[in-house]
Amino acid sequence: MFDTGKTITAGDAALFVSQAGKSDGPPVILLHGGLGSRADFEPLARYLVSRYRLIAIDSRGHGRSALGDATLTYRQLADDIAAVLDQLGLSEAGIIGHSDGGIVALRLAASHNARPRFVVAVGAHWQLPDDNPTREIYRDVTAQEWREMFGRQVRRYEAENPDPDFARLFEATRAMWLGKGDDAYPNDTVRTITTPLLVVNGDEDILVSRAHAFALAERVEGARLLNLPFASHTVLQDTPTDVLPALTGFIDGSQEKARPTG
């Protein structure tokens, strides 16, 4: 799944876009996490292909997408995705974003550069204060340690990226994780989000705490929170069926609310 696709230019980078599922189904954009790729959604996508049109995008520098010369920031990634969705005529498609992909989805919804029908943010930070312990994790991890922990992920990147340089991508991504200011995390701009939002969090997520996820849901009017016991940061890959009932119910409910009446 997601093996074929096309590239779409966003700024100075060509981004790889792959589609699967029901061609006339409700469109759902899939945005992966940092140092991952569209392939990370395959475990979940198996359960969605019969109902939805799935559009998986490799973010700048990841998977089969070029890194370009622009500084990697969450603002840049959101601008990239907004440009791709505009070219595809999918600015109003729903979005499922994991980790960095969830942060990008929150920025898109808050900036109104896109008008997603819904957003599902899984294991996503909306802010990262200086005293958040995750910052220490990001500061201390090295490219070699990442390669040892996620060797299969890195090997896939090196096999399919048009200009693979994992050390460069890692340092650019880590700098984004540690970033501050208007180009980084959405912070309190999330209060301006009006699109339906489902926040998904796992109790065993070592990066995003339950309190953090709860605070996000509390800041967005009408947001829903799905907290999963024993689930990790990679719940969509590890145990997608734990998320599935609430996820499909939320998506279908958002579709019904958006359908014109009368």
Name the descriptors.
single chain; 262 residues; alpha/beta; Rossmann fold; 8-stranded mixed beta sheet; 10 helices; 8 strands; 39% helix; 17% strand; globular
Description:
With 262 residues, the protein is of the alpha/beta class. It has a single domain, classed as 3-Layer(aba) Sandwich (Rossmann fold), CATH 3.40.50. The chain is 39% helix and 17% strand. The protein is built from ten helices and eight strands. It has helices at residues 42-45, 74-88, 100-111, 133-140, 143-149, 151-160, 166-177, 210-219, 235-238, 240-258; strands at residues 6-10, 13-21, 27-31, 53-57, 94-98, 119-122, 197-202, 224-228. It has an eight-stranded mixed sheet with strand order 1-2-4-3-5-6-7-8, with helices on both faces. β5, α3 (100-111) and β6 (119-122) form a beta-alpha-beta unit. α2 crosses α3 and α5 (143-149) crosses α6 (151-160). The longest helix has 19 residues, at 240-258. The radius of gyration is 17 Å and the shape is globular. The model has no long low-confidence stretch (mean pLDDT 96).
Secondary structure layout plus pairing:
Elements: E1 6-10, E2 13-21, E3 27-31, H1 42-45, E4 53-57, H2 74-88, E5 94-98, H3 100-111, E6 119-122, H4 133-140, H5 143-149, H6 151-160, H7 166-177, E7 197-202, H8 210-219, E8 224-228, H9 235-238, H10 240-258
Parallel strand pairs: 3-4, 3-5, 5-6, 6-7, 7-8
Antiparallel strand pairs: 1-2, 2-4
What's the short version?
The protein has about 260 residues and is of the alpha/beta class. The chain contains 10 helices and 8 strands.
